Amino acid sequence: MNRAKLRKFKVKPNAKTLAARKLRTFLKSRLFVISFLILVQFLIMLLFTIILQSNMAYFFEVSAAVSAVFLLYLVNTPGKNEFKIAWILPVILAPFFGISLYFMYKFNQGGINLKKKLRKLRTDTKDYIPPKRDARAVAEYFPEVKDIAQYLYNFGDATGYLDSETQYFSCGEDFFADLIDELKKAERYIFIEFFIVEPCQILDKLLQILSKKAKEGVDVRILFDSIGSVALSSAMESDYFKSFGIQSKIWLKFIPVFNTGLNNRDHRKIISIDGKVSYTGGVNITDEYANIYSKRFAYWKDAGIKITGPASRTFTLMFLEMWNVQNKKDVPCENFENFIPKEAQLCLENHTGKGKAGLVIPYGDDAYNGADIGENVYRYILQNATKNVSIMTPYVIIDGSMMDTLIFAASRGVNVELIVPQYYDHFISFCVGRTYIKNLIENGVKVYAYQSGFIHSKVFIADNKMGTVGSINLDYRSFYHHFECGTFLYRTKSIKEAQKDFDKTKLECKEITVENYKKIPWYVRTTGWIFRIFGPLM
Q1: Phi, psi of 117 (to 5 degrees)
Q2: Alpha helices by DSSP H, 169-264
Q3: What pairs with residue 209 in β-bridges?
Q4: What's the whole-number average pLDDT of the chain?
Q5: 75, exposed or middle or buried, with CB in 10 Å at 0-12, 13-18, 19+?
Q6: Which position has the higher pLDDT, 492 or 105?
Q7: CA-to-CA distance for 241 and 253, rounded, in angstroms?
Q8: How far apart are CA 123 and CA 145, in angstroms?
Q9: Is a pLDDT exceeding 90 seen at residue 71?
Q10: 150: number of CA atoms within 13 Å, CB side?
């Protein structure tokens, strides 16, 4: 990044970014809010104790009665038991605040406007999604997976394509090297959407290219999350990118007012170039992900995928939906037809390769669509595997149904293997994740700890022919709270590339067995068991 411009717009030096991001992320986390509100309740109770000593018996009786009624309500409410259990402790310790907080999150008043905007946008974009008859016809090329293709179309407006090539990247440096080459070829537009964008060397390189393309008349836009990208999430952001000729928006700008809608972060990683080439995966725009510089790890292992062909239009559509959600009331929505011609969206006669490139289905997920698409794709892969399942994930904080699916696959004789980090980037999440790993290895699932650095890849592969690569972690936050994306792949060359990467990466791992799990430091195991109850809320 141009250092003169950096000083002009008062961006903090990169050396302080990491500590600031960690602190701000914690202070804005749901766990911190819950802990703070519980503390407030204790202080209020102490005040009652001092001032209203003669009436305290009535206060505790009312609190107990309210808690009992709420717990009866909670038990009889549809939903995952893990979420219910997570709310029991706050309600018992701080009834009035705990119950109020529960209903705030349940009805998510802060996200109502966001949900309305998304619903309207998705209604408006129906014309740019191929008709169901075409989607079914595409699925018929591979009848063995037509059920997941129809599911993704029906619940995620995600279309399958037969004529799009894919390329897998086993590390961030390869991902960015290829991306830079493709950015230079852009002619019409470049859309970029990331969870984290930080002032760094890799951003410098990208801005040099993006600035040049903008001068050539290419429509360049960047959308990033306000909490993930704390170094750029300020009033100066718009003017800064504008100085490069780039349009920019921040996803859900953070304001110092408690708002449940702020819990739904944009964790997607999307780049769409002219609707012809697109990228997704686990990487973010920081030097750490490109292995240029890291204070924490010797190596940052991540994965990404490139799509070349018509399937890229899906990521264009997903980006424009998110971009328009951030519009002010008096700003009209984009004319999607400027970027995704209706007549060119999908016709079977365009599939000249007749499925030789395999089936490619880019898809998205979020907290407002009423479907756990990301989790269901993972479950589908596990349920339909017959020989082996290879998984790379940085976090393992899962509900009972996902745990059962993993264990059931192993019990059917499927060789289920997970690669997870040996070292942590978020201590409490790491500790909690180890408690779930204990359950897995005790029930036949093989888990390996990556020794060479930190693994951040989000990859699921089954039988060397089916899988997905994207931004979706194996945790509650990705499954139920965040905006996420991925690409379902069947019989593509990228699946074989991903499997080779898994096999190679496993050589740099040590298996976590029941015996060596017992050697994990006591404070890690204790922290995990204490905070596991809050897993669904983390």
Answers
A1: -60, -45
A2: 172-183, 201-215, 237-242
A3: none
A4: 84
A5: exposed
A6: 492
A7: 16
A8: 27
A9: no
A10: 13
8 Å CB contact between 267 and 225: yes
For residue 154, which of 369, 441, 422 has the smallest C-alpha distance? Answer: 369
The one-letter code for the residue type at 460 is: F
Residue 483 pairs with which residues in a beta bridge? 266
**307, 272 contact by CB (below 8 A):** no
**Strand segments (E) across 10-119:** none
- Torsion, Cα 186 191 194 198, to 10 degrees, reads 60
3-state secondary structure of 250: strand
Cβ atoms of 169 and 305 within 8 Å: the answer is yes
- Residues 326/339, Cβ–Cβ less than 8 Å: no
Q: Which residues contact 318 (CB under 8 A, 6 or more apart)?
A: 268, 270, 362, 364, 485
pLDDT digits (tens, 9 = 90+) for 466-475: 999 999 999 9
**Which 3 state secondary structure label does DSSP give 107?**
helix
Closest CA to 261 of 104, 476, 101, 108: 108
* Collapsed DSSP state (helix, strand, coil) of residue 339: coil
Torsional sign, CA 22, 24, 26, 30: negative
Hey, what's the torsion of the CAs at 19, 22, 24, 30, to 10 degrees? -170
**pLDDT at residue 141, rounded to an integer:** 87
Residue 95: closest CA among 105, 86, 85, 87: 87
Q: List alpha helices for 400-443, DSSP H.
A: 400-411, 427-441
**CB 265, CB 225: distance < 8 Å:** yes
Measured between alpha carbons, how far is residue 142 from residues 11, 42, 136 in Å? 51, 60, 10
Distance of alpha carbon 353 from alpha carbon 204, whole angstroms: 39
Nearest 10 degrees: Cα torsion 229, 234, 236, 241: 30
Find tokens 């994990």 and name the residue. 520
Output the pTM of the full model.
0.83
Max mean pLDDT range (47-56, 255-264, 445-454): 445-454
For 95, the 3-state DSSP assignment is helix
CA 250-180-292 angle, 5° bins: 80
Sign of CA dihedral 17, 19, 24, 30: positive
For the record, the structure tokens of 258 come out as: 């408690």
**415-421 vs 388-392, strand pairing mode:** parallel
CA angle 266, 272, 274 (to 5 degrees): 150
Q: Give the count of beta carbons closer than 10 Å to the beta carbon of residue 335.
A: 9
Distance CA 176, CA 164 (A): 20
Nearest CA-CA partner of 486 in 347, 345, 307, 348: 307
Instruction: Concatenate the DSSP letters of all residues of 468-531 into one string.
Output: EEES--EEHIIIIISBEEEEEEES-HHHHHHHHHHHHHHTTEEE--HHHHTTS-HHHHHHHHHH
